[in-house]
Write a structure and sequence with these properties.
With 418 residues, this protein is an alpha/beta fold. It has 15 helices and 13 strands. Strands 3-2-1-4-5-6-7-8 form an 8-stranded mixed sheet, sandwiched between helices. Strands 10-9-11-12-13 form a 5-stranded parallel sheet. Bound molecules: nicotinamide-adenine-dinucleotide (NAD). Nicotinamide-adenine-dinucleotide (NAD) binds next to helix 4.
Length: 418
């Protein structure tokens, strides 16, 4: 089959390469010349094991081609961004533009598969509506399906194949046709349903995580009311065979868990009470972090705070929606200066420091990402460089005993015993 993949980012590139590897002719399309040049020269980021070799191999074979314009195809797969707008609505402009760009190429019998995470009813209302506008029947002339992704960056190639998948069709025929295409590389089970259920399921999965993290974060807040260490409480509670509480932290980041619940909330704000509350609890966490640090320092005015970790989670360089950014914003609004060190983040849009530089003149250290590398930091050397000796670890990545023995006033977030 000829497949045109629109958008060659985290999701589109591996999907395109894997389809080519299974023998399809794949035209990869992206509006960014930089993205296309990077793919041509490097294949893919080295952070995705195996992907660069796969991409370069498929480009070499001629089964995978690159262009800045969409091409006529049997199947169009849309892998475009769906970020959140400041008003907490989904920004559908990329998907709209992407679909618009393929409309002149659409022929009867073609299939459009949407992979972008979208609000419920996007396939049946937005995409089907655009198809109708050019005089084609979205139920009979074209097959429309929604095939969401749940892969994790860093292991995309493995998870793309092995995870179970949900595929929703605007019609049963569209669902089974899309299932047939994905069966060429998905070894997990493919569950088919209608497109709106599949859209809802994708959002529900991340909303479930958000609600559960909010529960853990609320326990961290309660730890100060009751004078307990939340980590001890969670470890003990989790010994119950049917309890599995997640870990609290400085908030929820990333472009999925912190964003997807809003796509449901926006469509049904009155009904989505628990989702809204979870968002409130999780977005309040940076305030709790700053308050805890202020309690340690007395005042934040003119203090230099070393921030360890900008990424939204451990061992990645992605800082989209990272709670560390909000923590920094609040600290700076209260008169502190932040010096950020993150060995994984390449481009933050502001100055990042090497560890030693970040520690120069530091009044306090704040750990906001649990990078594994941080475990090896020598607390004695850090104390020599710093001005103060306060440290707040919001991820419980550092060894409290080691740091305290080296002379640090060490706190974990959610340790109400201190
Ligand atoms: N990255 C993930 O781990 C992940 C996981 C699950 C779901 N998703 C969802 O998948 C979708 C895509 O995410 P991503 O992470 O791959 O995004 P991305 O930002 O990595 O890639 C999107 C690509 O689309 C290109 N683009 C923008 N407008 C275009 C247009 N009109 N035509 C062609 N190309 C265009 C951009 O240049 C970019 O290369 C989003 O809805 C996201 O929420 C992502």
């Amino acid at each position: 089959m000829k497949v045109c993949v629109i958008g060659l980012g985290y999701i589109g590139l591996p999907t395109a390469a894997i389809l080519a590897n299974k023998g399809h002719n794949v035209a990869g399309m992206d509006v960014s010349q930089r993205v296309l040049d990077d793919i041509r020269t490097q294949g893919a980021t080295p952070e995705e094991p195996g992907l660069a070799d796969l991409v370069l191999g498929e480009l070499e074979s001629g089964r995978f081609t690159l262009s800045d314009k969409p091409e006529a195809a049997d199947v169009f797969i849309i892998c475009l961004p769906t970020p959140i707008l400041p008003n907490k609505k989904a920004d559908m402009s990329y998907v709209e533009k992407g679909v618009k760009s393929i409309l002149p190429l659409l022929q009867k019998g073609n299939m459009i598969i949407l992979e972008s995470t979208v609000p419920p009813r996007t396939t049946s209302d937005l995409v089907a509506g655009m198809v109708k506008e050019i005089g084609l029947d979205p139920e009979n002339d074209i097959d429309l399906a929604f095939a969401p992704e749940r892969v994790i960056p860093g292991n995309i190639l493995v998870e793309l194949s092995t995870l179970d998948r949900v595929i929703g069709g605007l019609t049963p025929r569209a669902a089974s046709r899309a299932k047939e295409l994905y069966s060429c590389f998905v070894t997990g089970e493919i569950v088919i349903t209608d497109s709106t259920t599949a859209e809802f399921v994708k959002l529900v999965e991340n909303s479930y995580r958000d609600v559960n993290i909010a529960f853990a974060n609320e326990l961290a807040q309660l730890s100060y009311d009751f004078g307990i260490d939340v980590r001890d409480a969670i470890l003990i509670a989790n010994r119950h065979p049917r309890v599995n509480i997640l870990q609290p932290g400085p908030g929820v980041g990333g472009h999925c868990i912190a964003v997807d619940p809003y796509f449901i909330i926006d469509g049904a704000p009155e009904t989505s009470r628990m989702l809204k509350l979870a968002r409130i609890v999780n977005t309040e966490m940076p305030e709790l972090v700053v308050k805890t640090l202020k309690d340690m320092l007395g005042s934040l005015q003119n203090k230099t705070i070393t921030i360890l970790g900008l990424a939204y989670k451990a061992d990645v360089g992605d800082c989209r929606e990272s709670p560390a950014l909000e923590v920094m914003r609040i600290l700076e609004s209260r008169g502190a200066k932040c010096k950020v060190h993150d060995p994984y983040v390449k481009n933050a849009g502001f100055e990042l420091y090497e560890l030693a530089e970040a520690m120069e003149g530091s009044d306090a250290v704040l750990v906001t990402t649990g990078h594994t590398d941080f475990k090896d930091i020598d607390p004695k050397i850090m104390l020599e460089k710093a001005k103060g000796n306060s440290i707040l670890d919001t991820r419980r990545v550092l060894d409290r005993t080691k740091w305290a023995e080296a002379g640090w006033d060490f706190r974990y977030l959610g340790d109400g015993k201190k």
